[in-house]
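Example (one chain per record):
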Amino acid sequence: MLMIRRIAILACLTGALALAAPKKAMIIDGRNNHDWQATTPVLKQILEETGLFTVDVVTAPPDNESLASFSPNFAGYDVIVLNYNDFGPKNAGDWPGKTQLAFEKYVREGGGVVSFHAADNAFPKWVEFNKIIGLGGWAGRNEKDGPYIRWRDGKVVRDDSPGRGGSHGPRHEFVVEIREPNHPITKGLPLKWKHAMDELYDRLRGPAERLTLLGTAFSAIEMKGTGEHEPILFTIEYGKGRVFHTTLGHDVPAMKCVGFIVTMQRGTEWAATGKVTQKIPADFPTADTVSVRP
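Predicted structure:
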């Protein structure tokens, strides 16, 4: 009887340790029209400080080198964080076909993905990638790539109007409004919170299939915006995979906003596991006040 009890206790302890084991995250960078050398270390720190993740960084070959051998082992990770784009005229940053297929398979079979800021500028011609991220910008995108997603009169609207895909005005502080307060990522967040100075992406276009709009920000005309409530935080389901897409985080100062930090941490946990265990910190911004960390 004593031996059985010891075995049961050992099994419980083993199970608890397994549940507590950090998830494996991979950040992909190396090509971006943004300063990935500065932002990747911040992303890594933000995720690892939760205690929920171990983070590896995979850096693509430089712009002047071939990507033919670029083949990360996606299957070994719970979540892939994309800090990568190259939307030059020759699409020089396109991954090899076998790498694209491996990434699609990884997500379709249940892998998590986080699209961070300008990662949604990447791969305009890669059909499945655009389904995975839901919405993208620049790189020649327009109405052929899918609708704009708007928040009008309390509901999501798919706007098929012709026009370019992707723009933003000057960096400024703006209020993020939570549109789906019961999602695990946003549950418990203030319904309105002020984000630090950042680019407010607008006019993003894409397939927007199985998209859940979590948060928007108003793109003011006087800030060279659209006069629309633009998608800022959202999720996509792709096969069995979960995708968290944030347009926030142009540079390191923007990434010091507690709103950015917390939504990145919670969004990555949800993409990796389907749930969120983190509490809302006391220094989270309010509707009127920006909150930043050193």
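Caption: The CA atoms of residues 117 and 247 lie 4 Å apart.
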